[in-house]
Automatic annotation (TrEMBL), chain B:
Name this protein carries in UniProt: Branched-chain amino acid ABC transporter permease
Membrane topology type: Multi-pass membrane protein
Keyword Repressor included in the entry's annotation: no
Organism: Pseudorhodoplanes sinuspersici
CDD domains for the chain: TM_PBP1_LivH_like (cd06582)
Main location: membrane
One GO MF term attached to the UniProt entry: transmembrane transporter activity
GO biological process: amino acid transport
PANTHER family named among the record's database cross-references: ABC TRANSPORTER ATP-BINDING PROTEIN, BRANCHED-CHAIN AMINO ACID TRANSPORT SYSTEM PERMEASE PROTEIN LIVH
Length: 391, 304
């Protein structure tokens, strides 16, 4: 009797073990920047991604997933180490989360060369978009240049003839200025590369004033942009020389920090909180419920959420198998999900084709500044590097 | 010409900021022989305390003592808990311990106040601009920073050269053993000096708040430059810190402002920008190397 009980127990535990094994969640390595000036960006990215998982009850595309979050500390070397460790010791094959292009540059090649999959929710550096494109590398956000091409186009539409441009001296900064100039038809009044560790822009303000441009375009993500905008206002330039910037230089966190100083800034974006589509309404509702109405999601959150949905669609199509990268790829490229930004397709270099809109910072009904979406700047725009990608 | 003047002002103001940080660092190093990497944390604590109080009360006047007190208190606590154990250890251990402090404090601030940068509004009285140079409206707040910095520099000069404490500080930095042998409570002196350094760092932090984003890691961004200032000025010398800070501030600003333009006169724009940006970020280190070549002790070494 006791023996049978024992045997039953054994059988039961064996059954339990197999079901547990069968439901072993797919681990997703989210390497992101949670410290330093861009820390809030990583936090938004992580929280939106987690929100998508929570909304499906711990699953993406019907497949149980487990998010493993690590902070890259804004250091390329650290990002690379984390990826190596996650691949070798935790057996993670599916990665996402990197914010900054310099960190992506150090980390992504290791992941895809090691047979892993990387789905970018933010950084889309040019050097991985053309000749160096890779079957297991997807970008859900944008190719870096496109952000700034839309700002250049917006400057044309707004009728600016002479623009002063600035960006930090790193890959994404160079991509930014190149992208802006590719579409802007007027004259460049001045071009400055700032330092990535710089927080005081007084010398640059003096140069802007001396050059007397029609408008200023700058690309300073995160805390850098907050400092820049504040000092732009303090130097008395905000009222006199309009700003025409890309999404990273005017996000919800910046508005919170800068307040009324941000009113009147022209931006461009592929997603905004006020987008009128069912997927976005659902997202905004869930976000507000979880994080409160006080914390407006930045567009990084919108991208993090869309990335989670894209991965979900791919997992659904591949039955949760991330080892069979080709099967995963076929499913991913269908982009079978409702993006919060609206229309979304993958180009042949596995970067997005999407719409871009002009935005302007205005005073909202409660007196706080909000980003309002305006006219379309680009329709279903891909990037210029896709044609060089041979897969 | 007016542009050059304005850039000089900018460089001067940057230098003043660096001086406030470097003064404390150099005192602590010169007198106690302690390398304190966590000095940037005191700057951050001052900035955070001021930003939080300003946000709560809406008054910058209240934020000033808040920042000073918080940084001073943090300095006292750090000295008592950590630095005190390090006076007789070698520099490597000091570096390790104070680096640990950085990680600890940064993580602590993140837990308490989150990762989103905070912002302090400029007090209304200082939010305008003054045409110091005709035709160039220079932000009043930056002028206020310069005035405060110069007052502090003057005050420190008087303190070090005209008071009993200052005498002990000077003596302590050159003949530590002798001061101890004469029965001075060197421990108390150390604590006072450390707290003073912390206060100055806190002052720099609370003044930087309205200009920059108050965020975790802000101290480390400026710490490296502060060390460069201390090395150029000579360890333990307040005067050296002052001149060193002005040299670094002006060099950095002027190179950033005029080097790309200078290169543009004989090469294409994007190359000139890249080269200019590269060289201007190296500039201060080149200056440091030059100074060390000519005067290995720095400009005004306390023990020399």
């Amino acid at each position: 009797m006791r023996l049978t009980k024992f045997g039953l127990g054994m059988a039961l535990s064996a059954v339990l073990a197999t079901t547990a094994w069968a439901q072993q969640p797919v681990k997703i390595g989210l390497i992101t920047t949670l410290s330093g000036p861009g820390g809030y960006i990583g936090a938004d990215m992580r929280d939106a991604f987690q929100l998508a998982i929570d909304m499906e009850g711990g699953k993406l595309g019907g497949v149980p997933v487990q998010l493993v979050v690590e902070d890259d500390g804004f250091k390329p070397g650290q990002g690379k180490q984390i990826a190596d460790r996650m691949m070798k010791t935790d057996g993670i094959r599916l990665f996402t989360g990197i914010i900054f292009s310099n960190i992506a540059g150090a980390t992504v090649p290791d992941i895809v060369d090691g047979g892993g999959i990387y789905v970018s929710p933010n950084a889309g550096p040019s050097n991985f978009a053309g000749k160096e494109c890779h079957k297991n590398y997807y970008v859900v956000s944008w190719q870096n240049d496109t952000l700034h091409e839309s700002a250049g186009q917006n400057a044309n539409l707004l009728g600016f003839k002479k623009v002063f441009i600035l960006a930090p001296n790193y890959q994404a900064g160079k991509d930014a200025l190149a992208g802006f100039k590719r579409f802007f038809k007027g004259e460049i009044a001045g071009e400055i590369y700032t330092r990535l560790d710089q927080t005081d822009y007084a010398p640059e303000m003096a140069q802007i004033r001396a050059a007397k441009p029609d408008a200023v375009y700058h690309f300073h993500p995160g805390g850098l942009g907050i400092a820049f905008t504040r000092q732009y206002q303090q130097a008395g330039l905000l009222g006199t020389i309009p700003m025409v910037v890309a999404a990273p230089s005017v996000d919800a966190t910046l508005l919170k920090a800068v307040g009324d100083a941000a009113v009147g800034i022209n931006g461009t974006t592929h997603w905004n909180t006020d987008f009128d589509n069912p997927a976005n309404k659902k997202f905004m509702e869930a976000w507000t419920k979880k994080y409160g109405a006080d914390r407006l999601p930045t567009y990084y959150a919108g991208q993090g959420y869309d990335t989670a949905l894209a991965i979900g669609a791919a997992l659904k199509g591949s039955g949760g198998d991330v080892k069979d990268t080709e099967k995963f790829r076929q499913a991913m490229l269908k982009a079978d999900f409702q993006a919060v930004r609206g229309a979304f397709k993958f180009d042949k270099n596995q970067h997005p084709i999407q719409d871009w809109y002009a935005t302007k910072v205005e005073k909202g009904p409660d007196g706080k500044p909000v980003i309002k979406t305006g006219a379309k700047v680009f329709s279903m725009q891909g990037d210029v590097y896709a044609k060089d990608c041979k897969m | 010409m007016t542009l050059a003047l304005e850039q000089l002002l900018n460089g001067f103001q940057f230098g003043i900021m660096l001086f406030l940080l470097a003064a404390g660092l150099t005192l602590i190093f010169g007198i106690m022989n302690v390398i304190n990497l966590a000095h940037g944390c005191l700057y951050m604590i001052g900035a955070y305390a001021a930003a939080l109080v300003a946000a709560r009360t809406g008054s910058f006047l209240l934020a000033i003592p808040a920042g000073l007190v918080a940084a001073g208190m943090a300095g006292l606590i750090i000295e008592f808990l950590v630095i005190r154990k390090l006076y007789d250890r070698d520099h490597l251990q000091q570096v390790l311990a104070t680096f640990g402090l950085i990680l600890f404090i940064n993580e602590g601030v993140t837990m308490l106040f989150g990762r989103t940068p905070l912002f302090v509004s400029i007090p209304p009285a200082l939010s305008g601009s003054i045409e110091i140079i005709p035709g160039i409206p220079y932000p009043t707040y930056r002028i206020a920073i310069m005035v405060v910095g110069l007052l502090v520099a003057g005050g420190l000069y008087l303190l070090v050269n005209k008071t009993r404490i200052g005498m002990l500080v000077r003596a302590g930095s050159t003949h530590r053993e002798m001061v101890r042998a004469l029965g001075v409570d060197i421990r108390l002196l150390y604590t006072i000096v450390f707290a003073l350094g912390a206060l100055l760092a806190g002052l720099a932090g609370l003044m930087a708040g309205p200009l920059l984003a108050v965020q975790v890691g802000m101290g480390e961004q400026i710490l490296i430059l502060t060390f460069v200032v201390v090395v150029i000025g000579g360890l333990g010398s307040i005067r050296g810190a002052f001149y060193g800070a002005l040299i670094v501030g002006l060099t950095d600003t002027m190179l950033r402002a005029f080097l790309p333009g200078f290169f543009k006169t004989f090469m294409n724009a994007s190359e000139a920008d890249a080269l200019g940006a590269g060289l201007s970020s190296m500039g201060i280190y080149l200056v440091m190397a030059l100074v060390l070549l000519i005067r290995p002790q720095g400009l005004f070494h306390a023990q020399g």
